[in-house]
Amino acid sequence: MNQAAESIRRRMEELRSHLDDDVDDVVDSAKRLFDWRVYVRKHPWACFGAALAAGYFAVPRRLELKSPDVETLLQLAGRNKLVVQANPSTQRREGLVNGAFRFVAQAALREALNFAGRQMGKRGSRND
Known about the structure:
There is one protein chain. The chain is an all-alpha fold. The protein folds into 2 domains: 1-66, no CATH class; 97-128. It is 74% helix and 0% strand. The chain is built from 5 helices and no strands. Helix 2 (36-42) crosses helix 3 (44-58). The longest helix has 32 residues, at 2-33. It is flat and about 100 Å long.
């Protein structure tokens, strides 16, 4: 009986020593399985296609703007789902000349403030 127990103990020790190696192999293969770089190296075109498809489905579709007819507008207004502004504010687009003038005016103002600051600094250092 001692011999049988001893052989079982030796077998269990062998299994335990191999178990660590097996676990390490499983961990390494799982890391390789989830490493995206391996797939890109092996199948670059398939990965490119998958990325393209994912990008296509990730981007929302364009809004379709429809002009409702008068009856639809009246129905929406009747359900209080339509707000009508009598005088909508119009945003004026700035012309090229106005934009250039604003740029030059801001640059001149910045330079004038810098000049004034330098002059104040010179006066302050003289009084010290």
